[in-house]
C-alpha cells in the first residue's frame, strides 16, 4: 500500500499542464481580479444568508442533572456539517489564488463534503468533480449531481488521494484536498465557527460551559477547531473524538503513531479514515473512544425514536460516545452538560443504516447495543459486557 507521503501531493496552486507564466498573467489580469472579488463575495454572502444551526436538547431524566445537546448541522443549505468546511476551503483556496475561472475543483470525498463543495463550485461558476469510493450511498451521489457536480468512482478507497491529484493535473484544475487543509482553512479563534456557535447558544442554559464536546473525525478539522477554540478561550471543556470500526484514528492517537493505517474502509460514511490525515491534530483531543458500527447504528435509530429525527451514521457514533460520557458523569455524581453533533440527515442513508437487509449483509447485529442504550436510559446505569 502506498505510504501517506506517496499519496500526498504538494500545495496545488499550480498544475503541471498549465505554464506558470500563464497563471501569473491570469492573476494580474483585471478580469481575473474582478472574477476573484465576485467569487469571494458570493461565498461570504452565503454565510450571511444562513442562520445559525439549532442546538437540540436530548431528553434525559431530570434528577440526573446532566444535560445532553445535539448541534444540528443538518439544517445548513447543503444539509450537513461539511457546509462550514466547504465554505472555509473555498475561501482559503480562492484567497490563495488556487481556483481559477473555468478550471475544475476536484475533491476526494465520501459524500457530504462533495455535496457542499459542489454547491459552492456552482455558486462561483466552476466545474466540480468528486472522487469517491464506489460504495458511497446512491443518495449522496444524486445530491452531488443535483448541485452540478460529477462523480468519479474508485474501487479502492485508499486511492482517492492519488486519483484526485491526477484528475486535477490532467484537467488543469485544483485539488481541494480537504484532508490536508481542513484544519488550517477554518478560523479556530472564532468568526462564528462551530465551537464559538456552541458556546453562544449555551449562554442561557443551566450549564453554559460543557464538560465535554464529542465529535467524530473524517478530516479531523472539526475536532481541531473545537480543541483549539477551547484552549484559546481557556475553557475547562474536554474534547472527545469517537472513531468507528475500520478507522485508524483511535489506534494512531492511543499509540502516538502518525503512520497508523487501516486496511479496510469505514462503513460509517463521512468519518473514519484508512490513514492518519494531516488535518487530524492529536494534541487538540483529550480522549478518544472506539465505537462499534453496530453501536453507531443502534444509537442513530434511538435518536429517531426519541427526537423523531433521522440522522446519518456518524451522528450515531458521536451520540453513543456522548451517552457513555453522560453515564460516567451520573455514576460519579457529576453535574453539567455534554454536546455532540447531528452531522447530516438520515434520509441520505435509507438504503444503509435504516435498512435491515444492509445490516444483515454486513453482519451487524444492533440488538445488544439497543438493549444497552435502553437499559441506561431507564436505569442510569451503563451495563457491562460485550455491547458496552
TrEMBL record:
The modification N6-(pyridoxal phosphate)lysine is found at residue 82. Its EC number is 4.4.1.1. Its cofactor is pyridoxal 5'-phosphate. Gene3D superfamilies: 3.40.50.1100. Belongs to the cysteine synthase/cystathionine beta-synthase family. Cds1 subfamily. A cysteine desulfhydrase that generates hydrogen sulfide, H(2)S. The H(2)S produced by this enzyme modulates the balance between respiration and glycolysis, and contributes to redox homeostasis. Probably eliminates toxic levels of Cys (which can induce oxidative stress). This is L-cysteine desulfhydrase Cds1. It comes from Streptomyces evansiae.
Amino acid at each position: 500500500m502506498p505510504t501517506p507521503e506517496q499519496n500526498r501531493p504538494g500545495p496545488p496552486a499550480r498544475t503541471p499542464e498549465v505554464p506558470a507564466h500563464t497563471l501569473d498573467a491570469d492573476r494580474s489580469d483585471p478580469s481575473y481580479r474582478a472574477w476573484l472579488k465576485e467569487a469571494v463575495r458570493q461565498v461570504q454572502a452565503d454565510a450571511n444568508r444562513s442562520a445559525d444551526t439549532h442546538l437540540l436538547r436530548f431528553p434525559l431524566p431530570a434528577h440526573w442533572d446532566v444535560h445532553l445537546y445535539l448541534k444540528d448541522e443538518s439544517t445548513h443549505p447543503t444539509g450537513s456539517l461539511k457546509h462550514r468546511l466547504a465554505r472555509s476551503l473555498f475561501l482559503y483556496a480562492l484567497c490563495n489564488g488556487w481556483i481559477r475561472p473555468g478550471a475544475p475543483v476536484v475533491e476526494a470525498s465520501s459524500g457530504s463534503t462533495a455535496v457542499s463543495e459542489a454547491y459552492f463550485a456552482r455558486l462561483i461558476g466552476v466545474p466540480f468533480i468528486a472522487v469517491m469510493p464506489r460504495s458511497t450511498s446512491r443518495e449522496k451521489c444524486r445530491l452531488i449531481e443535483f448541485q452540478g457536480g460529477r462523480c468519479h468512482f474508485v474501487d479502492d478507497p485508499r486511492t482517492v488521494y492519488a486519483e484526485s491529484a491526477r484528475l486535477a493535473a490532467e484537467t488543469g484544475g485544483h485539488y481541494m484536498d480537504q484532508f490536508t487543509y481542513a484544519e488550517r482553512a477554518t478560523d479556530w479563534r472564532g468568526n462564528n465557527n462551530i465551537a464559538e456557535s456552541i458556546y453562544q447558544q449555551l449562554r442561557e442554559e443551566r450549564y453554559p460551559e460543557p464538560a465535554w464536546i464529542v465529535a467524530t473525525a473524517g478530516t479531523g478539522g472539526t475536532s481541531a477547531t473545537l480543541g483549539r477554540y477551547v484552549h484559546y478561550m481557556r475553557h475547562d471543556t474536554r474534547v472527545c473524538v469517537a472513531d468507528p470500526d475500520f478507522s485508524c484514528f483511535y489506534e494512531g492517537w492511543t499509540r502516538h503513531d502518525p503512520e497508523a493505517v487501516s486496511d479496510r474502509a469505514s462503513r460509517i460514511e463521512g468519518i473514519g479514515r484508512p490513514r492518519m490525515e494531516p488535518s487530524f491534530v492529536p494534541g487538540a483531543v483529550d480522549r478518544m473512544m472506539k465505537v462499534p458500527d453496530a453501536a453507531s447504528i443502534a444509537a442513530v435509530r434511538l435518536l429517531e425514536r426519541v427526537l423523531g429525527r433521522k440522522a446519518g451514521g456518524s451522528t450515531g457514533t458521536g451520540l453513543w460516545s456522548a451517552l457513555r460520557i453522560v453515564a460516567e458523569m451520573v455514576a460519579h455524581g457529576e453535574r453539567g452538560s455534554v454536546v455532540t453533533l447531528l452531522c447530516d440527515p438520515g434520509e441520505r442513508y435509507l438504503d444503509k443504516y435504516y435498512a435491515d437487509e444492509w445490516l444483515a449483509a454486513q453482519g451487524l447485529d444492533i440488538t445488544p447495543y439497543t438493549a444497552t442504550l435502553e437499559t441506561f436510559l431507564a436505569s442510569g446505569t451503563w451495563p457491562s459486557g460485550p455491547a458496552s
